Amino acid sequence: MAKKGRVFSGARPTGRQHLGNYLGAIQNYVALQADYDCVYCIVDVHALTTVETTQDLKLNTFEMALDWLAAGIQPEESTLFIQSHVPEVMELHTYLSMVTQFGKLTDLPTFKEKVRQQPENVNYGLLGYPVLMTADIVLYKTDVVPVGIDQAPHIEFAREIVRSFNYRYNTKVLVEPQVKHTEILKVVGIDGRDKMSKSLNNHIELASTPEETTKRVREMVTDPARQRRTDPGNPDVCNVFTMHKIMSSQEEVDMVNAECRRAGIGCVDCKLLFAANLNKHLEPFRAKRAELASQESYVNDVLVDGGKRARAIAQKTMEEVREAMQLP
Ligand code: SF4
Questions:
Q1: Which protein residue's CA is at the shortest distance from atom 4 of ligand 1?
Q2: Largest separation between any pair of C-alpha atoms in the chain
Q3: Potential cystine with 5: which of 44, 80, 143, 241 (Cβ 3.0-4.6 Å)?
Q4: Whose CA is nearest to atom 8 of ligand 1?
Q5: pTM (predicted TM-score)
Q6: Could you tell me which residues are beta bridge partners of residue 41?
Q7: Are residues 180 and 321 in the same domain?
Q8: Are residues 278 and 300 in the same domain?
Q9: Are 127 and 256 members of one domain?
Q10: How far is CA 65 from the centre of its chain?
């Protein structure tokens, strides 16, 4: 079946993936493969803007790729690769930076936020981040970028850079990417408060054993007003109930909703039910992960092959770009 166009998406190498990554992004990556030619990039160069040391970069990249493949990214269908394996992206970034106004970059909320987060390391890469991101997208002649509503302004900014480039060099060589609005689930961590994240240690790792997963689920914060087993609870303010709605059957969701309110079910039993459903859901993922991990060098081969395929597209784009710019 003919595909609808090319999708590009990138993510920083954060190592073993957690439930928030899975529900918020990876599941969507897998689903998009049916309709699009997908290019998925592990953006290790972007990571350099914030990491203090690169000693874990290789391992984190490997573990992340392993999880993506185990979750269903098909390397024969999609191009899965590492950003730095395609050095053309750095060249395009430089050219795009010449058509991007400094003031626009310093005004971006994402840059201001980073300055607040790491005032001791406001490096040039942070400022140029959206330009490199644009280079990532347009280098592969991307048609659509799947993003949540709150990320749409980033793509609009990329479109502006593309228009500036095409106008400056009187060309149409770069394609303005379109936004593909995607419902990106924001999964709350086991603290019941913040978005699930490794750095906050409120995550549930996909590659954990069923026992470890159950232990983490048992640590989940519930309705804070429910102090004793005999207190009625309010599932609407409880993250365990939110997770049931994603992972459990409608019958179970209805049961928890009703029984929690009249103290008919305790939080421990409620969590154990969720843990059982989550473990069942992750069974095929874990089996595939174990199989892939046992095939030495398979993941690396996939990444090398993906890099070659991505680079072939990139080199062609850069030939056109240099010609449009009339570089000597
Ligand atoms: Fe949350 Fe379930 Fe406890 Fe209700 S019974 S407060 S939904 S964990």
A1: 260
A2: 79
A3: 143
A4: 267
A5: 0.93
A6: 10, 81
A7: yes
A8: no
A9: no
A10: 12
Nearest to 160 by CA among 137, 181, 183: 137
Q: Which domain holds residue 218?
A: 210-289
Is residue 220 lining ligand 1, measured as CB closer than 6 Å?
Answer: no
> Residue 315, Cα to own-chain centre: how many angstroms?
26
- State which ligand 1 atom lies nearest to the alpha carbon of 267: 3
Ligand 1 binding pocket includes 265 (Cβ within 6 Å): yes
Distance from the alpha carbon of residue 225 to the mean position of ligand 1, in angstroms: 11
Q: Ligand 1 centroid to 231 CA: how many Å?
A: 11
Nearest-angstrom CA–CA distance, 128 and 136: 12
CATH number at residue 260: 1.10.240.10
Say whether both 109 and 247 belong to one domain.
Answer: no
219/307 same-domain check:
no
Q: Are 176 and 267 members of one domain?
A: no
Separation of alpha carbons 270 and 260, rounded Å:
9
* Domain co-membership, 148 together with 227: no
Q: What is the pLDDT along the chain (328 residues), one digit of tens a residue?
A: 678 899 999 999 999 999 999 998 999 999 999 999 999 999 999 999 988 889 999 999 999 999 999 999 999 999 999 999 999 999 999 999 999 999 999 998 888 988 898 899 899 999 999 999 999 999 999 999 998 777 888 899 999 999 999 999 999 999 999 998 877 778 999 999 999 999 999 999 999 999 999 999 999 999 999 989 999 999 999 999 999 999 999 999 999 999 999 999 999 999 999 999 999 999 999 999 999 998 879 999 999 999 999 999 999 999 999 999 999 9
Do 284 and 306 sit in the same domain of this protein? no
Is 204 contained in some domain?
no
Ligand 1 pocket: which of 221, 236, 240 to mutate (most atoms <8 Å of CB)?
240
Looking only at the bridges linking them, the beta strands covering 144-147 and 178-181 are parallel
Residue 181 pairs in a beta bridge with: 147
52 occurs within a structural domain = yes
- Length reported for the chain: 328
Beta bridge partners of 179: 145
